[in-house]
Design a protein that fits this description.
This protein has a single domain, classed as Hydantoin permease (Orthogonal Bundle). Helix content is 76%, strand content 0%. The protein is built from 17 helices and no strands. The protein has helices at 15-26, 29-41, 45-73, 77-84, 91-123, 133-144, 148-165, 169-196, 201-209, 218-231, 238-243, 252-280, 297-300, 306-339, 344-364, 366-405, 415-440.
Length: 444
Amino acid sequence: MTGQQSCERGGFGSRVGFVLAAAGSAIGLGNVWRFPYTAGQHGGAAFVLIYLVCVAAICVPVLFAELAIGRATRRNPVGAFKALAPGSRWFVVGGLGVLTGFAILAFYSVVAGWTLGYLGKALLGAFAEPLTHEQSVAMFEQIEGAGIVPVLLTGAFLLLTALVVRGGVEAGIERAAKILMPIFFLLLVAMAIRAMTLEGAGEGISFFLKPDLSKIDGGVFMGALGQAFFSLSLGMGAMITYGSYLGANERMPGAAVSVAVADTTIAVLAGLIIFPTLFAAGGDPSAGPGLVFVTLPTVFGKLPAGFLFAIAFYSLLVIAALTSTVSLLEVVVCYFVDERGWKRERATWLVTLGCFLLAIPSALSGTFLDWQSIIFGNYALTIGAMLICLFVGWVWGVPAAVEEIGRGGAVFPLAAAWGVIVRWVAPVAIAAVLIYIVATGNYM
């Protein structure tokens, strides 16, 4: 079935549609929520510098590998490995990707539900006046704490996600991406400009963009590499799945680089919103995961027209989360369409229901959510990315992958260097991340 594509699977109607959808998969809460607080915890600009190096030198080559696997086979992650290594057990790596995508969606949709709750608060004027830290914590506990509210918010967000995915690749995912991504980018640019013009914003810009090289250590490097993999949706089957929808005549290198550039640009713009805003209002940049949901709410009321800023910011978070949950759901739906012969409608609703049931414990318990994030958002994702590199480098083979990358008349002048990175550099770097996580207990 290599190279074949059923009407149930569909495909992207244009290169722009693919880039926007794949960028939407990468651009999510990892950029607007996780990247800023991780940068804040690791010294700001020093982290950003290492992050950019990791994206360019390691993560983009892995992105090429995943897209090549998908387009060469026109299959979901499980079917792709079956097609390229028939009779072997390498399909288990694809299964790990599908399982990882499903599990990440389960806890990610809980956090995404929080963004809906905060957008509702913003629209009702909750941020019109300054909040104390205690008031902000109480607000977060209303939305995140055990009870029916977080479960309902999670269900609402999964419903939004399912409505997009059930429409198919071109009519659902691509159409949504073409609407949501331009709105997302315009909001982001407008907010970054506003944030950087606040009185006292200069200190935040310096913290984020002027690196102090003395702050670079092993923890900064490992944190940056782990964030880069999470941000680009690598190791979870999403890019293999989206690659399977990429046309044979489309030039993959340009499309892949466009996705990486868009993802990195969004992360930097998010930092240029959050850090100038925090420093202008005297906030703490190292507040950790609560930066967006606890620290920033205490800042909005201190800004001119801060309630409008809050509405725009949480609208941004909702869009970012939705473009990512769509890609995660599509990974699992694609598996059931390809491997089990299900209709897309049936696959979408049954997978969504299963994911909602798995998400309920995370919605009711922050501890359960944390463990899901650790197991699947760190270990499974990172192991998956390493195994994909080993497969492409040593089983499928660099020459075959390079041939696939060059289809459609694409120029790939760095093929030799790419082969070295995929076979040696990326697996070693990923293994180092895993060893660091285990040795230090720092789950990034």
